[in-house]
Write a structure and sequence with these properties.
Two copies of one chain form a homodimer. With 391 residues, chain A is an alpha+beta fold. Chain A is built from seven helices and 28 strands. In chain A, helix 1 runs parallel beside helix 6 and helix 3 runs parallel beside helix 6. At the A-B interface, helix 2, strand 15, helix 3, helix 6 and helix 7 of A face helix 2, strand 15, helix 3, helix 6 and helix 7 of B.
Chain lengths: 391, 391
Amino acid sequence: MINIQEAHQLIRSNCNAHRIVEMDLLEANLQILAESVIAAMDTPPFDQSAMDGYAFAFDKTGDSNALKLTGEIQAGTYSTALLSNGETVRIYTGAPLPAGADTVVVQENVELACEYVKLVDALLVKGGNVRKQGSQGKKGDVILDKGQILTPAGISLLAGNGLTQVKIYGNPVVHIINTGKELVKPGETIRLGEIYESNSFGLAAALDQLGIKPGQISVVDDEEDIILDCIHKNLKADILILTGGVSVGDYDLVALALERAGVKKIFHKVKQKPGKPFYFGVFNQTLVFGLPGNPAAMLTCFYTYIVPAIEAFTKKTYFRKIQLPLASDYKKKAGLTHFLKGKIVGHAVMILDGQESYLMNSFALADCILELEEQKEIFLKGELMTLRLII
Amino acid sequence: MINIQEAHQLIRSNCNAHRIVEMDLLEANLQILAESVIAAMDTPPFDQSAMDGYAFAFDKTGDSNALKLTGEIQAGTYSTALLSNGETVRIYTGAPLPAGADTVVVQENVELACEYVKLVDALLVKGGNVRKQGSQGKKGDVILDKGQILTPAGISLLAGNGLTQVKIYGNPVVHIINTGKELVKPGETIRLGEIYESNSFGLAAALDQLGIKPGQISVVDDEEDIILDCIHKNLKADILILTGGVSVGDYDLVALALERAGVKKIFHKVKQKPGKPFYFGVFNQTLVFGLPGNPAAMLTCFYTYIVPAIEAFTKKTYFRKIQLPLASDYKKKAGLTHFLKGKIVGHAVMILDGQESYLMNSFALADCILELEEQKEIFLKGELMTLRLII
């Protein structure tokens, strides 16, 4: 049986796929740019007043500093008249300077008399209160680099540049197959021996956290031919997730069906708790994950192994890892890495009660997963732990 | 002019609204529960085998410890036969124990001979490897408390309980009005004096980060009657955001139009940079925010003031605040609180170049906003800063 470091390494070395897609700006929110974005125009696109004030030619004001007011330019309009020496126009923030002008005096620093504007701004310099064309960026400049996350501010920047589409690393297509004869859809009536199917809900919600809508979701009986048929229909996904049926019981048929479907097993079983029966294989470019049916084990494997595989596909980081001291002592046996549901309380992390693989009560309250080393047995209060945030 | 503490306080004291909605589990992902969730059934719903093995009555095995194999129970099926003394059935993980049985021996700990199963498990106790009905939770128990965030694991827990709907604090309806005669839709052609409208994109993307789709988005000219008419049409929102036109220029008509519409001004202008002209008012239960048109000032005000207002509505926390040391010295003048775009680099926070209110290049790269105290002028490398994460 391999350990978790080997499992991570084997998954990583099989994560070679990605998909570059062109998208509307808003749809690309928080995705990673797959190519650098080039400015389509100068920003600002013209010499622009930075303030409400009066525009004029700095070197041609004459001795009196009194300028004749000849017009007004509101933002969104422009003047075709050439400003002559000794003239000025009322101008508003964002409006284009008229030809002949190079400087703006702010409205608080003038005296108005009839049709004349007298400058009273000893600190004003030539070009003052003007944003020169292209001062924020020139047409043809790289405005955002490949590999940058496209933030809301980045979307605003690109929209301001007139752009409507952008190339990003797209999300993988993720199909889900839940196996188990005992599974009944929530809301329906269960009979003795049956339970409600919850794994597709947990997985769909966890994918939604990453901004990914699952593709096909199937729930099938524990019968090898039925599982095989369903695998065949879902092998075109980038990532195929199966839940249940990966242990060694007589009815744990997922590994057998995957083998018959031509999926190449990379590993099956990892020295970890929960999630020991975890399976990973590949079929062409498709990554195939077999997760235990117990919901807490299933979600632990998702956050621990499938999130990094999705990160490799989208080049994105979904959850921060942080370090916090342990709130109280904890003991475990050596031999398996333990993944524990934790909750941050003040400046420490508390290990929640109820860590069994079938218990979801504690997982529902958890905001992080702690990873407790395979061979280590005693963890003391105050010890610094690395945690993977999950919300 | 008020300071930012007063602004926060005035907004907070007007944030009294919320909306409780019943939703499908998956739609409620990551929202806050508005009422405690009560278990609809026992979990597990029957005495369930925890392992693949053999079920039998612990006290009635007889001296030989050899039990007669009488049948098999797969998960999802059940047996109606009463198990007699000295009998056992093959049973699989998740399957219901037959009547008369109370204990399961795992398949590794038996010897099989013809139709007999011999127990070889000295450590086995009565009830071993059985999950008793209701051991995870009883029908009628509170399984998740009001106020808890509904995580993917929580959704899995509730689905496993057969539930399909849940009551959560819903998102506010947010309408947006962008004002400015100079604004042209990205993708269209601009003429001299015009610029691309980017604020609706920045705001829609920032709302999308919170899982909120904006309601109405309008772009209107700087004409008081047009703005007034648009305000009238949008005052039914929970939150109305206007951008542009909140300064004191002759064409900054938003505050005037809001007054005519009957919106009660709570404050206008805050001792901060960027975003000094920031406006806040109320109309019945509707919160009305007037943001500067400059995109960096606009988004700064959104993250600083509107996100907390939305948090009050949904009871949720969207962005963590963390503390990190400053990567290099920084100086500012006293008198205004400065909000600066920052980027976390290793274990320090770097203040990005290009902090002017019209520059989006730096904001597009930022992952946090730093708040620099109003009266303080010098900030030294290594000083611990509080930062609001924005991605």
